[in-house]
Amino acid sequence: MPKPAKSGKTSSSEGHAAPAITAASGVTLDRYDVAILDALQRDARQSNADLAAAIGLSAAPTWRRVRRLEELGVITGYRAEIDRRKIGLGVLAFVRIDTDRDNAASTQALEAAIKKLPEVISCHYISGAGTFELQVLVTDLDAYSRWTMDTLFKLPNVKDLHTSFSLGEVKAGAALPLGHLRAP
């Protein structure tokens, strides 16, 4: 797999040298890599030929670049975006969980338990009040109430829950911002 040259240029074996930018993670990307990420976030189902045409490279180097981005863990997967309401998931809840932070083993047990809950679509370890912030999808308020009592309160190390409900989405499922990866 071709790797960016140390000079800050991409490998000339792909026929195109472009200034490279090293992200905070240490991964070096050039304008073609960024263009690939941008295009795939908008439409991950497009063919390699269409992707190549969109970014201005031929098919073979485009394919190699996509594979490299996957191997580096920059691209972590592909999935369909589903309208949650059309499949009956009408309630989006934001749940802050308070725990005892002084017990690492209990906190790790709670993390492992949260990862197994399909209703939790996002979980973040947070600063400030609380320990974890969850995004939870359920069918309705009754289902949320049952799920809280039957599941959340039975998890290890949970002291308290604070829930806010989404009253309407302004923006969701957005593509990641890539402006910081473009050359100045």
From TrEMBL:
Pfam family for this entry, one: AsnC_trans_reg
PANTHER family, sorted: LEUCINE-RESPONSIVE REGULATORY PROTEIN, TRANSCRIPTIONAL REGULATOR AZLB
Keywords: DNA-binding, Transcription, Transcription regulation
Source organism of the structure: Ideonella lacteola
Membrane-traversing stretches: none
Keyword set includes Metal-binding: no
Alphabetized PROSITE patterns for the sequence: HTH_ASNC_1, HTH_ASNC_2
Protein name: Lrp/AsnC family transcriptional regulator
InterPro entries tied to this protein: ArsR-like_HTH, AsnC-type_HTH_dom, Dimeric_a/b-barrel, Tscrpt_reg_AsnC-like, Tscrpt_reg_AsnC/Lrp_C, Tscrpt_reg_HTH_AsnC-type_CS, WH-like_DNA-bd_sf, WH_DNA-bd_sf
Lineage: Bacteria, Pseudomonadati, Pseudomonadota, Betaproteobacteria, Burkholderiales
SUPFAM superfamilies recorded: Dimeric alpha+beta barrel (SSF54909), Winged helix' DNA-binding domain (SSF46785)
Keyword Transmembrane helix: no
Highest taxon above the source species: Bacteria
Domain HTH asnC-type: 29-90
